[in-house]
From TrEMBL:
Keywords: DNA-binding, Transcription, Transcription regulation
The name this protein goes by in its record: Transcriptional regulator
Sequence ranges assigned to domain HTH tetR-type in this UniProt record: 20-80
Organism superkingdom: Bacteria
GO molecular function: DNA-binding transcription factor activity; transcription cis-regulatory region binding
Naturally occurring in which organism (per UniProt): Mycobacterium numidiamassiliense
PROSITE patterns: HTH_TETR_2 (PS50977)
Pfam families xref list: TetR_C_11, TetR_N
Compositional bias annotation for Basic and acidic residues: 14-23
DNA-binding region: 43-62
Length: 199
């Protein structure tokens, strides 16, 4: 079989594989640069240089810098978003969920991601809409859904979910290094206790 035909039929270095390799390199470079420089310090030029691709390759998939950041952030968010378990003990279920969230968001990578999400949402409305739908809303809904399953009315569940998620996220944004899982657990228990549920 001719060498050229062998190369084509073996699938080695096909355009699809080259494209996927470039896309992976771009996502990895963006993630690293966000961790090192934050949203404000990230440029398409820097991503292209680190990924070893041309700027046009990036713009082929992502029309703007915020669009690129949103995709990378949402890819990472999928690893954080989990549903609250339903064991029959509301406080224990929510505390376990908050414990995992806190452990993730207080790592260097997690807190950097949270800061980037916040800045990107403040500066770019289109990006904010995507990040709220893909990250903020699922976090809130996970807690709200568990509260509703306990028979708590909708408006109370909405506010309690605000308090639990906000009670964890805000202190981490302020000072991730000093925030502890014990504090997150205490905040959650205080909110659950305030609901006055019969035990």
């Amino acid at each position: 079989m001719p060498a050229d035909l062998t190369r084509v039929t073996s699938g080695a270095d096909t355009p699809r594989r080259r494209s996927e390799k470039s896309r992976t390199a771009i996502v990895t470079a963006t993630r690293e640069l966000l961790l090192e420089r934050g949203f404000d310090g990230l440029t398409i030029e820097a991503v292209a240089a680190r990924a070893g691709v041309g700027k046009q390759t990036i713009y082929r998939w992502w029309p703007t810098r915020p669009a690129l950041v949103a995709d990378v952030m949402l890819e990472d968010a999928d690893k954080i978003l989990t549903s609250v378990e339903h064991t029959g003990d509301l406080a224990s279920d929510l505390v376990a969920w908050v414990r995992k969230l806190t452990a993730t968001l207080t790592t260097a990578r997690g807190s950097a991601m949270l800061r980037t999400l916040t800045v990107a949402c403040m500066e770019h409305e289109d990006t904010a809409v995507r990040l709220r739908a893909g990250f903020s809303l699922p976090l809130h809904d996970s807690v709200r859904t568990r509260l509703l399953a306990e028979g708590i009315d909708a408006s109370t569940a909405e506010s309690a979910a605000d308090a639990i998620v906000g009670g964890v996220v805000y202190p981490i944004l302020s000072d991730a290094q000093s925030y502890s899982r014990r504090r997150a657990e205490l905040t959650t228990r205080l909110i659950v206790d305030s609901l006055g549920l019969k035990r």
